[in-house]
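User: Second chain of the day. Same drill as before.
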Amino acid sequence: MQLPADPNSQMVTVWSERGIRFTLRGSGTEPKIKIYIESCSDSRDEAVKAVCDVFMAVLEDWIQPCAPGVTYAERIVTSSGFVLDARSVPALG
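Assistant: Same format as last time:
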């Protein structure tokens, strides 16, 4: 199977076996990386946990090895209103 590709696009979208999708891209106007994570579950808590787990995996496995000097916002807010306090996360603090 060949996935769609656009040589002019500077983003990656990944679908997991758990039904989670994330897109990682550079900002077009600022020197920053943006990540969009989508999760669906019967429980909001399960969906939020899945999003946080994927965020940490992308951070630890993709971003930090390539850009160890990247800085982060102290508070990361999801579209559902969940707030991840980055200072409490060992990889970010």
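The chain has a mean pLDDT of 83.

User: Great, on to the next one.
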